[in-house]
Inverse folding.
């Protein structure tokens, strides 16, 4: 029997043990602040352990030696003002000693003055939007793990659920100020290596900061329940040297310029239904399928279906309106900010023709550009 | 005082008052079968109803926990889709808090308070009936919303706006309505407890002679009356924001989503103490009994309970350190939260000192009580760590918090309820429970519960957020261990069911006072306790 149990346990755990590398403690992180937070954590942990050893020690001693079965006879003391004052005052003093470093660290954490770089972080269901204030750089960062890995059709990669299409690139040794807000529900931007966890509240802006000491890739996740994709909006920061950062900034600005030219060109293009459908399907799967489902059926009572829906088979202008400007106060975001005119045209075409919607309509980038004008 | 007692009693329950003077078998005239339970105004019947209801809810919420742990057994999405997963975490929390823990304490209060203070029954027996019987409706509504199109509540038991308003499923109105009913039930229960304790104490049972269970429940009842209306306000604002176009929590209309959290936690933090103060009372009854020694520091226990209750109104924002409060507010809430550890510590020291140089034996109630002291203290330690604001930025909304509140609620509140059940079962049923089975239940529970919850501390520290249906592969091993602990803990509770059923059916006859070291009026009554506890007030030494 025991052997069987042992075999079963080995079978269950062995394949994983080889891959295991989960730290069992908080890590020190890569900023001065995260180091201080780690120290606070360790100090309070040791204090708790010490108190635990004393209290549990006394208790276990009594449990072993003051048993009835060992012939122990109960004493009959049941009060002692001195002892009680002592064990009220002593913990109080320990707490004050603990509060001093905690206060100092907290005050330092909240001091966002004199930042050299400001990044605005906007949470939206279920991705992060980063914009660099003075650099004019602006992009969305989506989960990069494919659905097939999540559903177990493919083996899971090393950074399963902790990988994004476009990481947040930040320079080391500069004070960076983060501004957090949200487009819809509350999210929370958590990067353990910086000891930063700050809520992104819709309609309000929160501030925090970091000065990164080490280059590297750091991963985190959204920490506040934000709906069904909450487990699927990771954060990846790539910290590079200041020089590398500056080159990255210029390359991004150049790329943005090129993209603008391309978008301009797209306005005068007219693509075939097939070409639009192919591009549209990709956009749909990465931006829409999480709610409206890959089969366009939605989730009854939460996310409306697009298959055969009034919007997807009705007037094109209404369809464009819903996609570009969203439906305020619902989970339907305004995609006008996130996608190019070409992508919007493709995805709307796709929705109007997929799943037997077969309207035969094609929508071109120029139509998107003209919408609402 | 005494005339008031009589008066109140006769106003409240004229029918029973006349019966009080008859022989105890008068209740044979009472309705039989289902009507006996539907119409009962007897504190023991109602206590029994509450306790069984609580146990059924415990198994219901437990089943949901099993779904959660099964999904989290491996990385990837296997069994349920994320939206259903969120419904499971939400309803698990609501059912355990409002369906399992709180009704169990009300059930214990019903059974024990009249016996402990030398009263015939609760002061307001009809309201007592009502406060129980609306509960099954509340939970039927809540649970049936899971089967509605769009599903049940999926925004966490803390239902933060705007996830619970603009972004919530259509069934949210049912959630709101069920919370209202639960709140009304709790408030009525609390009023009954207060009126009973204030008015129906036997002559000579003065305040500083009250058993600690009565004291802690009295204070809990005041907390309930103070904060349940706040919860009602919060759900009502969610209702009007969602359905009637108000903007309490909607920035676009001038509202503030963080205000929701202030309101919720102004209820929520006292609520967590509502779920632990009666436990303190239970442990303060059991530890002296099995140490055969008087409780150390009775009066400091009373003062500690009162100070915890008062402080519990000043710490709510420790759940909100990451929402972006001004530094001075963060400091204030950090200091107040740390301060709560002092009276909590006093209690633990008192229990340990009670055991010190006692003559201890380890029957099942004592095993649970000892496990309570150790494991609740571990939960207190993690609470203290969470109070340190800069460190909380790392712990918040991770499995570290999940570990914390399960240590205080499962190995705290629930273990104390188990301890209470074993301790008073002989009084309730007239039979001794099966000690061997009880011990098996204890050891299975205490081992599995630690396999279940201790590794969660590591998960949190390593960076695993709470409320996620899928996770990075580095967390796989530990989650698997946790899930195995979870299944084992869930199954172990069936042993408890077996013990209780066996004890009700029969077993060794229990004497009036089955525990050598027990003290208190309830042990002066025969076992099983008569239908009406004290028809004539007992003599208080
Ligand atoms: C020494 C005493 C305690 C201290 C200092 C303490 C402190 C804290 C803190 C700071 C948090 C917020 C953690 C976070 O979300 O980041 C927390 C969460 C929590 N605590 Fe405690 N706690 C103590 C005892 C208790 C007790 C006795 C209970 C209940 C029986 C309890 C139940 C909870 C619950 C349910 C939560 C989490 C609620 C949620 O977010 O879902 N705590 N505690
Ligand atoms: Cu989230
Ligand atoms: Cu709290």
């Amino acid at each position: 029997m025991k052997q069987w149990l042992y075999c079963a346990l080995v079978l269950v755990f062995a394949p994983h043990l080889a891959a295991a590398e989960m730290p069992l403690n908080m890590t020190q992180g890569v900023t001065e602040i995260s180091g201080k937070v780690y120290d606070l954590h360790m100090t309070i942990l040791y204090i708790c352990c010490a108190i635990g050893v004393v209290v549990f020690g006394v208790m276990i001693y009594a449990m072993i030696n003051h048993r009835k079965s060992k012939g122990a006879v109960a004493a009959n003391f049941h009060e002692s003002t001195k002892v009680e004052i002592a064990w009220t005052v002593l913990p109080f003093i320990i707490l004050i000693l603990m509060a001093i470093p905690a206060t100092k660290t907290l005050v330092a954490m909240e001091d966002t003055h004199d930042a050299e770089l400001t990044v605005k972080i906007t949470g939206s269901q279920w991705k992060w939007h980063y914009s660099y204030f003075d650099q004019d750089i602006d992009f969305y960062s989506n989960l990069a793990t494919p659905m097939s890995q999540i559903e177990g059709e493919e083996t899971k990669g090393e950074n399963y659920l902790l990988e994004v299409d476009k990481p947040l690139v930040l320079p080391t040794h500069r004070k960076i100020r983060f501004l957090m807000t949200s487009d819809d529900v509350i999210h929370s931007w958590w990067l353990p290596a910086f000891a930063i966890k700050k809520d992104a509240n819709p309609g309000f802006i929160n501030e925090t900061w970091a000065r990164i000491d080490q280059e590297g890739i750091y991963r985190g996740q959204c920490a506040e329940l934000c709906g069904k994709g909450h487990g699927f909006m990771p954060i990846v920061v790539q910290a590079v040297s200041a020089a590398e950062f500056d080159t990255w900034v210029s390359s991004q600005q150049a790329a943005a310029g090129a993209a603008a030219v391309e978008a301009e060109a797209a306005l005068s293009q007219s693509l075939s239904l097939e070409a639009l459908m192919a591009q549209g399907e990709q956009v749909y799967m990465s931006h829409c399928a999480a709610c409206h489902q890959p089969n366009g059926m939605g989730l009854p009572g939460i996310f409306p279906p697009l298959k055969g829906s009034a919007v997807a088979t009705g007037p094109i202008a209404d369809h464009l309106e819903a996609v570009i400007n969203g439906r305020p106060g619902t989970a339907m975001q305004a995609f006008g900010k996130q996608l190019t005119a070409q992508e919007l045209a493709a995805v709307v075409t796709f929705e109007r023709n997929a799943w037997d919607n077969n309207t035969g309509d094609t929508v071109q980038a120029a139509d998107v550009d003209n919408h609402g004008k | 005082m005494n005339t008031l007692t009589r008066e109140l009693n006769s106003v409240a329950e004229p029918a029973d008052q006349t019966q009080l003077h008859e022989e105890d078998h008068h209740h044979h005239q009472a309705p039989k079968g289902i009507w006996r339970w539907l119409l009962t105004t007897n504190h023991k019947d109602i206590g029994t109803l509450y306790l069984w209801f609580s146990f059924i809810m415990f198994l219901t919420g437990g089943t949901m926990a099993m779904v959660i742990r099964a999904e989290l057994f491996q990385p990837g999405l296997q069994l349920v889709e994320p939206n259903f997963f969120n419904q499971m975490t939400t309803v698990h929390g609501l059912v355990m808090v409002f369906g399992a823990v709180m009704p169990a304490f009300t059930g214990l209060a019903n059974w024990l308070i009249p016996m402990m203070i030398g009263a015939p029954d609760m002061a307001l027996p009809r309201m007592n009936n009502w406060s129980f019987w609306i509960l099954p409706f509340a939970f039927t509504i809540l649970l049936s919303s899971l089967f509605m199109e769009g599903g049940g509540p999926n925004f966490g038991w803390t239902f933060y706006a705007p996830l619970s308003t603009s972004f919530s499923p259509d069934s949210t109105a049912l959630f709101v309505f069920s919370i209202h009913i639960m709140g009304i039930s709790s408030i009525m229960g609390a009023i009954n407890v207060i009126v009973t304790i204030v008015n129906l104490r036997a002559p000579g049972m003065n305040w500083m002679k009250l058993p600690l269970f009565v004291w802690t429940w009295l204070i809990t009842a005041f907390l309930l009356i103070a904060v349940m209306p706040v919860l009602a306000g919060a759900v009502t604002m969610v209702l009007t924001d969602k359905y009637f176009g108000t903007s309490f929590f909607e920035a676009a209309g001038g509202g503030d989503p963080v205000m929701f959290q202030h309101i919720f936690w102004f209820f929520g933090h006292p609520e967590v103490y509502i779920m632990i103060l009666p436990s303190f009372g239970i442990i303060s009854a059991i530890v002296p009994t099995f140490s055969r020694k008087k409780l150390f520091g009775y009066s400091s226990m009373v003062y500690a309970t009162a100070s915890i209750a008062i402080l519990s109104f000043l710490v709510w924002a420790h759940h909100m350190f990451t929402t972006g409060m001004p530094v001075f507010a963060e400091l204030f809430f950090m200091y107040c939260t740390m301060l709560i550890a002092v009276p909590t510590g006093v209690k633990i020291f008192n229990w340990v000192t009670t055991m010190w140089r006692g003559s201890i034996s380890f029957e099942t109630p004592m095993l649970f009580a000892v496990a309570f002291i150790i494991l609740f203290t571990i939960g207190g330690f993690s609470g203290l760590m969470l109070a340190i604001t800069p460190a909380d930025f790392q712990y918040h909304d991770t499995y570290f918090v999940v570990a914390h509140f399960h240590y205080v609620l499962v190995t705290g509140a629930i273990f104390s309820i188990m301890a209470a059940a074993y301790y008073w079962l002989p009084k309730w049923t007239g039979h001794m429970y099966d000690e061997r089975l009880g011990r098996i239940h204890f050891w299975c529970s205490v081992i599995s519960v630690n396999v279940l919850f201790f590794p969660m501390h590591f998960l949190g520290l390593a960076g695993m957020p709470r409320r996620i249906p899928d996770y990075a592969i580095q967390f796989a091993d530990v989650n698997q261990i946790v899930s195995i602990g979870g299944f084992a803990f869930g199954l172990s509770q069936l042993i408890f069911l077996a013990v209780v059923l066996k004890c009700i059916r029969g077993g060794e006859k229990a004497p009036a006072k089955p525990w050598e070291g027990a003290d208190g009026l309830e042990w002066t009554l025969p076992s099983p306790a008569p239908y009406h506890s004290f028809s004539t007030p007992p003599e208080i030494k």
About this structure: The domain at 43-524 of chain B is CATH 1.20.210.10 (Cytochrome C Oxidase; Chain A). Chain B touches chain A through 102 residues (CB under 8 Å). Chain B is about 65% helix and 0% strand.
